[in-house]
């Protein structure tokens, strides 16, 4: 009789295949998409082998016995590289293939060991007892690999979260849940492997992870479906390779280390860009766009985003996020004292200044003025319409 777990397991295999087909058919795939589709391809075969192992059917298949062991060495690197590329923190391309060396080495070793390690007993195949230590070492190795890559992936996620303020003027609608769920889900699998390393439990948690993976992946716009960005977004690795950017009017390098040494940007040029930026912000009111990004603003100012970010950081001593929101707060304060604003709610005025949520407005206003918007309005004896 087929149990509920067998049904879930079979469903997990088809779910993996379905997600793989969705990604392969996705137009304009980027490198992160290709990494994810390749990961699903290997996960499909891993799920089959683990399922055969958990059900005991693998004992009747000597040519497949033991070949489930290289796959755990793949999941950690695939997770890490996917997070690396989807967050735009990559600096190299082909060098990342080195992460898969352990899986290749394990496969080569198994090609020599399995023919002599797999023995037959009463019509079924088992590992010879003298190879127990070898396979325990294999298991400990992929557990260490999994834990290390989970930690490295969380570090990437944390760095990505910190770097977001350097590109976006509103972060409330930017969700990192997909990456967080992906890392946590795979981390849960390794916890189960460490605590309860039975094959049955292993294939159950992997199957559940595939459903979990598919559910949140399909819900996240742009993962398994094309998404057309409406605003210019710069890959984060471009912001950390400023030394590659040079201006046309490069002056000879001075002996002493200067402030803009990495981009070879002269102080006078930085002052000019800063003045131009502030003039454009005041005249064109770019801050009113709630989805304004560093890439958008750099196009308007006509300067490379790396240089613009550097000028904002050095001249304003603020991140791009704080710089734009300071303009929004000042714009709100100006609107607040105008008589025609009495017919609007406080939140309506905030939205007109470029904020995209009540939470963002309240937090940034209090951070900049050290008082809440309502307390500030009360101090000025200004009464607005009541409402959200």
* Spatial separation of the terminal alpha carbons: 58 Å
- Principal-axes geometry comes out as elongated
Q: What is the number of independent domains? A: 2
Q: CATH class of the largest domain, anyone?
A: Mainly Alpha
Strand order of the largest sheet: 1-2
How many strands appear in the DSSP assignment? 2
SSE order in H/E notation?
HHHHEEHHHHHHHHHHH
CATH fold category name of the largest domain: Rhopdopsin 7-helix transmembrane proteins
Low-confidence stretches: 241-258
Q: Would you mind describing this structure in some detail?
A:
- The protein is built from 15 helices and two strands.
- The protein is mainly α and about 400 residues long.
- It is elongated and about 90 Å long.
- The protein has two domains: about 5-220, Up-down Bundle (Rhopdopsin 7-helix transmembrane proteins), CATH 1.20.1070; about 235-380, Homeodomain-like (Arc Repressor Mutant, subunit A), CATH 1.10.10.
- It starts with a helix and ends in a 9-residue tail after the last helix.
- The protein has a two-stranded antiparallel ribbon with strand order 1-2.
- Residues about 240-260 have low confidence and may be disordered.
- The protein has helices at about 5-25, 30-55, 70-85, 100-115, 130-165, 175-195, 200-220, 235-240, 265-285, 295-300, 305-315, 320-335, 345-350, 360-370, 375-380; strands at about 120, 125.
- Helix 2 (about 30-55) runs antiparallel to helix 7, helix 12 (about 320-335) packs across helix 13 and helix 12 crosses helix 14.
- It is about 60% helix and about 0% strand.
């Amino acid at each position: 009789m087929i149990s509920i777990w067998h049904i879930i397991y079979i469903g997990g295999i088809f779910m993996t295949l379905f997600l793989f087909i969705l990604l392969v058919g996705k137009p304009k795939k980027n490198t992160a998409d290709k990494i994810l589709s390749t990961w699903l391809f290997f996960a499909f075969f891993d799920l089959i082998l683990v399922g055969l192992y958990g059900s005991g059917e693998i004992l009747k298949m000597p040519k497949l016995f033991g070949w489930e062991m290289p796959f755990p060495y793949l999941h950690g690197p695939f997770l890490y590289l996917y997070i690396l590329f989807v967050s735009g923190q990559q600096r190299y391309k082909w060098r990342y293939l080195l992460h898969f060396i352990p899986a290749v080495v394990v496969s080569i070793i198994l090609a020599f060991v399995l023919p002599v390690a797999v023995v037959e007993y009463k019509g079924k195949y088992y590992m010879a007892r003298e190879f127990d230590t070898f396979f325990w070492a294999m298991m400990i190795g992929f557990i260490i690999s999994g834990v290390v890559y989970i930690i490295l992936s969380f570090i990437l996620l944390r760095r990505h979260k910190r770097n977001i303020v350097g590109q976006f003027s509103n972060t409330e609608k930017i969700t990192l849940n997909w990456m967080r769920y992906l890392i946590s889900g795979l981390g849960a699998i390794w916890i189960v492997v460490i605590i309860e390393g039975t094959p049955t439990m292993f294939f159950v948690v992997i199957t559940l992870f595939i459903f979990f993976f598919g559910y949140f992946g399909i819900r996240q716009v742009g993962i398994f479906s094309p998404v057309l960005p409406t605003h210019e977004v710069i890959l984060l690795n471009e912001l950390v390779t400023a030394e590659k950017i040079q201006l046309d009017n490069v002056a000879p390098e001075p002996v002493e280390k200067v402030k803009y040494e990495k981009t070879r940007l002269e102080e006078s040029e930085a002052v000019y860009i800063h003045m131009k930026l502030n003039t454009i912000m005041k005249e064109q009111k770019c801050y009113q766009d709630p989805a304004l990004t560093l890439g958008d603003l750099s196009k308007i100012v006509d300067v490379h985003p790396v240089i613009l970010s550097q000028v904002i950081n050095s001249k304003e001593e603020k991140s791009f996020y704080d710089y734009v929101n300071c303009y929004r707060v000042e714009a709100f304060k100006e609107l607040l004292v105008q008589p025609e604003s009495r017919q609007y709610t406080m939140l309506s005025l905030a939205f007109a200044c470029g904020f995209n949520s009540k939470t963002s407005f309240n937090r940034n206003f209090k951070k900049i003025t050290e008082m809440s918007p309502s307390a500030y309005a009360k101090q000025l004896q200004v009464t607005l319409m009541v409402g959200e």
